[in-house]
Amino acid sequence: MTPETQDNLATSLQICRNCRGGAPIDAHFCPQCTKILSLGRQGDYFSFLGLPRKLSIDAAELEQRFRTLSRSFHPDYFYNATTAERRASLERSSYLNDAYRTLRQPISRVEYLLQLEGLPAGGNGEGAKQVPAALLEDVFALNEELDVVRDLRASGAPEDEWRPRLEQARHPIDARRAAHEADLQTLSQQWDALVDRNASEAERRGVLTSLRERMLERNYINNLLAGIERELTVT
């Protein structure tokens, strides 16, 4: 067996600590001895739940899979089991909860997919560092209006003079956010279509890159809107 073959097996199989038999990466119980498997680190949330690595997930199906596995892993069923089995049930229950929380929300699902594919969106921190090129004009106009509003407040202008300006200034940003939500949905559908037809790495990378760009812009937009909300609550 070549080293490459060994590596491939290591990432596609789990080894049962009880009988040393091999099990598929998405299995939860050993097919040889039926014992619960210790949680490996080579899988992911999608495979753990028996789902393809796609962005459109049926909520009812996800809920059903979650509940079925929750019952299978529940520590009460392993009360009299060995220490290793009790630990495995706790590990799998915890991992299942994390997987469910992540995959049930479309945005966290996209973030997780990008992380798996080596293109993390960086979270809100990275989105706040630099103005995305597509947003430069809107950000410039917003900052100008914020300066005017702050000057009005500093001069003692009544709220009904500056608040409407601030609320009006957020309209283009709200429109940008709505457009990005639509873009993310379209790109998610494109990704799923590529998965269905087993598209090339280059094709997949193109969609993933676009998804990452939209996510970074979305993070920046959300920071802008949070800043406007802070200005609106200033007394």
Gist?
It is built from ten helices and two strands. It has 235 residues and is an all-alpha fold.
Share of helix, binned: 55-70%
User: What does the main sheet amount to?
Assistant: 2 strands, antiparallel
Strand order of the largest sheet: 1-2
Radius of gyration, in Å, reads: 24 Å
Overall residue-averaged pLDDT value? 87
- Counting DSSP E segments of at least 2 residues, the number of strands comes to 2
List the helices and strands and how they pair.
Layout: H1 3-12, E1 13-15, E2 22-24, H2 45-48, H3 59-73, H4 83-103, H5 106-116, H6 123-127, H7 136-154, H8 159-169, H9 171-196, H10 201-233
Antiparallel strand pairs: 1-2
How would you describe this protein?
This protein is 66% helix and 3% strand. With 235 residues, it is mainly alpha-helical. It folds into 2 domains: 3-104, DnaJ domain (Helix Hairpins); 123-233. It has a two-stranded antiparallel sheet with strand order 1-2. A hairpin with a 6-residue loop joins strand 1 (13-15) and strand 2 (22-24). The longest helix has 33 residues, at 201-233. The chain starts with a helix and ends with a helix.
Which characteristics define this entry?
Helix Hairpins; 2 domains; disordered N terminus; 235 residues; mainly alpha; single chain; two-stranded antiparallel ribbon; 2 strands
